[in-house]
Amino acid sequence: MARILAIDYGKKRTGIAVTDELQIIASGLTTVDTKELIAFLKDYTSQEDVELFVVGEPKQMDNTASESEALIIPFLEKLSKQIPNIPVFRVDERFTSKMAFQTMIDSGLKKKQRKNKALVDEISATLILQSYLYSK
After folding, report:
1. What is the CATH number of the domain that holds 121?
2. Rounded distance between C-alpha atoms, residue 50 and residue 44, angstroms
3. Vertex 3, ends 26 and 19: CA angle to 5°?
4. pLDDT per residue as tens digits for the range 79-121
5. What's this model's pTM, rounded to 2 decimal places?
6. Which of 22, 36, 113, 114 is the most exposed place for a label (fewest CB within 10 A)?
7. Number of domains in the chain
8. Closest by alpha carbon to 88, among 130, 50, 34?
9. DSSP helix/strand/coil, 55
């Protein structure tokens, strides 16, 4: 089996998580500068077998698209052109940042460590991926 890679797309930084080859465990991989995201994904997918990208879908409480969806749509178009052989699946990402922050508190990270926004993004991507895995 191939890995599944999750993306928590952000204006500045993007959190990335990935499954193991058996698609059982979701783990945070890294956070990359959004400007470098496509290059990172092309490099990663040339080295690892990835069968699916799971991309967070930000929504408002009334189920309408959030403002940041306007940033994600152009990225998805570029992604499908640059890496056309890997499909994209969208997952509702409401509350993932809050859940990521709570996860950091629950795991005993100090206040200074919890201010690391890159870590929050990586944990958010992991939560998006776990949500996808639970739904399969």
Report:
1. 3.30.420.140
2. 9
3. 5
4. 999 999 999 999 987 656 666 666 656 777 677 766 677 777 8
5. 0.86
6. 22
7. 1
8. 50
9. strand
Long-range contacts of 47-50 (CB under 8 A, 24+ apart): 48/3, 48/18, 49/2, 49/3, 49/21, 50/2, 50/3, 50/4, 50/5, 50/18, 50/86
pLDDT tens-digit series, residues 1-48: 999 999 999 999 999 999 999 999 999 999 999 999 999 999 999 999
**Whether residue 63 has pLDDT greater than 80:** no
3-state secondary structure of 53: strand
Helix axes 37-47, 69-82, angle to 10 degrees: 40
Q: How far is CA 21 from CA 7, 55, 94, 96, in A?
A: 17, 19, 27, 24
Closest Cα partner for 117 from 103, 131, 97? 97
**How many Å apart are CA 63 and CA 60, to the nearest integer?**
5
Condensed to tens digits (0 to 9), the pLDDT of residues 37-49 reads 999 999 999 999 9
- DSSP track, 87-120: -EEEEE-TTHHHHHHHHHHHTT--HHHHT-HHHH
